[in-house]
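Q: Could you predict the 3D structure of Leucine-rich repeat domain-containing protein?
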Amino acid sequence: GLNSPFSLTNLTYLNLRDNQVSDISPLASLTNLTSLYLLFNQISDLSPLASLTNLTSLYLVGNQISDLSPLASLTNLTSLNLQKNQVSGISLLVSLTNLTWLDLQYNQISDISPLASLTNLTWLYLRNNEISDLSPLASLTKLSRLDLSSNPISDISPLVENSGLGEEDIVWLEKNNLDLSEGSEDLENIRQLKGRGVNVHY
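A: Sure. Here are the predicted structure tokens for Leucine-rich repeat domain-containing protein:
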């Protein structure tokens, strides 16, 4: 485990990647941290992070996380990476309105309605989840990178409704349930996006 690093309370950056860490309670006192990297450990309990309200970047890739409630207080976060965890519910992310970069790839998420309030998002990665309803994305007009590949999506009209998607933006739609036959609504929507300058991968 981690020994309490009392002398490290002024730390602003900490990287504990690939350390088989499961108990992160000693980190609770490191309230000056702005960047924390805990990739590829064995963490499931995030409660010690609730006090780290100065965090702007938090990377939790490859752990065993399902409960996101401790993150609700981290309202200064601009980058959050939860790729490859066991996340299904993301309602507790609604308060993180400063997020510009959010990675939720390889989880078990189906309902993305909480994302509608995260209007500062510019990079959003949702590859390999269980998402079919994209309507919450229509309001995220600052998006420039949107990865929706490997989901059961059959209707991409909310992306057309998103007035912010345009020149030099990129959307990934591979491995979905889209009807790409000539004359289909999905193909027409893709053509509309491409006509606005969006680089669509499908």
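Q: Anything worth pointing out?
A: The chain has a mean pLDDT of 97.
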